[in-house]
Amino acid sequence: MGIEYEIVEHQAVFNMAEMAEISLPHPEADAKNLFVRDDKKRNYYLLTVKGDKRVNLAEFCEQNDTRRLSFASPADLKEKLDLTPGSVTPLGLLNDQKHEVSFYLDEYFAD
Question: Which of 12, 5, 29 is nearest to 21 (CA)?
Answer without folding.
Answer: 12
